[in-house]
Input
Amino acid sequence: MFLAADKILLNLNDDNDNNIDIALLKGCITNGYYLEISEDNICMIMNSNATKINAIKKICEFKKVTLEEVIAFGNDDNNLDMLKECGIGIPVSNSNQTVLAFANEVCDSNEMDGVAAWFHEYIL
Output
């Protein structure tokens, strides 16, 4: 019996410092899937179509708005596509360095309710 999975999550670091070899793992990923690292220790293996930007595009299509009309907030590498492709992409201040290097604008951290504060200042 074969069980289907929508997403496979792996903890890259365990308490005994047994780290998973990412290069080896990437070599095992077949076409139609991709691997993403989040928070420097969570490995996610997903269907190639299961991305945040694809979900946003579907919502835009349904709501009849363009990507230019969308504001996206994020903090990690798995948010880069939506931060880059949406009309406004804003990382929170506690984002990783890759995300912060991309940013033209940054809101306060998620611990400080940065997204809500940004909305309060610019939208409400």
Observations:
- The chain has two domains: 7-47, 52-122.
- The first strand starts at residue 7 and ends at 11.
